[in-house]
Automatic annotation (TrEMBL):
InterPro entries: 3D_dom, DUF348, G5_dom, Resuscitation_pf_RpfB, RlpA-like_sf
UniProt keyword Signal present: yes
Residues of the G5 domain: 150-231
Protein name: Cell wall-binding protein YocH
Domain of life: Bacteria
PROSITE patterns in UniProt: G5 (PS51109)
Coiled coil (residue ranges): none
Keywords annotated in UniProt: Signal
Listed GO MF terms: hydrolase activity, hydrolyzing O-glycosyl compounds
Pfam families assigned to the protein according to its UniProt record, in alphabetical order: 3D (PF06725), DUF348 (PF03990), G5 (PF07501)
Length: 334
């Protein structure tokens, strides 16, 4: 009897150990599953219909993620990933298909596509080069309502010809020169290229030309022009901006010249800083700066002041005589 009880205790201990091992194994599997599930969670950005949203997901398919986000894909819609596989930080972009009218060998039909070029649409529809070609620009940008014609190529020929290359003009900004000033620092010469062109035919009728290659016979030399970009000038009142510089013939006059009243054509009192101009060249009221004279305002006119002539009002006869007549730069201020 005692021996029987000992055996029973041993069997129960063995069974308990087995059950414990099984339970531990089950708990380990559950733990690993939960851990793996949590480890697989990722943040994905969805761009669709002009909106962006960030979702956290354990799914590994774009379709499943979009479905959970409430985004429905049409039969011709497409999804782009910015990574090779779905991972944390992946961006999903939904491309919505749009309608395009396509004509193939004269037969028109409407299709839905996400392709952005005529060649891309032709390839998507199975009309591949060299047997088929989009007419016009193969890289034509497509949008809703675009029309694309695709033709069957039944023949082709190649011709070579020479073509002149027009001189390119390169303009360089130079802040050491006034705005409006220019200096040609290199005279250009035309170039010449040899062009190899392919002509495509459909039933003997030319339908498209496309350049195969171009080789220089004579390189084009560009014309290079320096253009002034400096728009500030240093004055006794500091740095001021100007919009143009005029070279003008300057003379001097006194407040009592003319009718002797000392009043300008605009009603201002004649004093230093007032200058007479041709209003067709410099509108009255324009602020000016003249090196060697200073800041001024165009507020007077004169019978002899026509075109690029300017009369500067001086304070004394001696100053006017000393100034005489000379060429000056006139800065038209902003």
């Amino acid at each position: 009897m005692t021996k029987y009880l000992v055996m029973q205790k041993k069997n129960m201990a063995t069974l308990l150990r087995r059950h414990t091992s099984l339970l531990l194994l089950l708990l380990a599997v559950v733990f690993m599953t939960i851990s793996g599930f949590a480890w697989n969670e990722k943040s994905v950005t969805i761009l669709a219909d002009g909106q962006a949203q960030i979702v956290r997901t354990h799914l590994n398919s774009a379709e499943g993620i979009l479905h959970d986000a409430g985004i429905t894909l049409g039969p011709k819609d497409a999804v782009l990933l910015n990574t090779q596989t779905l991972q944390n930080g992946t961006q999903l972009t939904v491309l919505r298909a749009f309608p395009v009218k396509v004509t193939i060998d004269g037969v028109a039909k409407d299709v839905m596509t996400v392709q952005t070029t005529a060649q891309g649409l032709a390839d998507e529809l199975g009309y591949h080069a060299p047997n088929y070609v989009p007419l016009g620009d193969s890289n034509q940008h497509l949008q809703a309502g675009s029309e694309v014609a695709i033709a069957h190529v039944t023949g082709r020929s190649v011709k070579t010809y020479e073509q002149p290359v027009e001189v390119q003009v390169i303009r360089q900004r130079d802040d050491s020169m006034h705005i409006g000033e220019q200096e040609v620092i290199q005279e250009g010469t035309p170039g010449l290229v040899s062009v190899e062109e392919e002509i495509l035919y459909q039933d003997g009728k030319g339908i498209k030309k496309q350049i195969i290659s171009q080789n220089d016979i004579k390189r084009m030399v560009p014309t290079i022009i320096k253009e002034g970009s400096r728009d500030v000038v240093e004055t006794s009142r500091g740095v001021v901006r100007y919009r143009e510089v005029l070279t003008m013939e300057a003379s001097a006059y006194l407040p009592g010249d003319g009718d002797g009243r000392g009043i300008t054509a605009t009603g201002m009192v004649a004093r230093r800083g007032v200058v007479a101009v041709d209003p067709n060249v410099i509108p009255l009221g324009t602020r000016l700066y003249i090196p060697g004279y200073g800041m001024a305002i165009a507020a007077d006119t004169g019978g002899a002041i026509r075109g690029h002539k300017i009369d500067l009002l001086m304070e004394s006869y001696g100053e006017a005589m000393e100034f005489g007549r000379r060429s000056v730069e006139v800065y038209v201020l902003q």
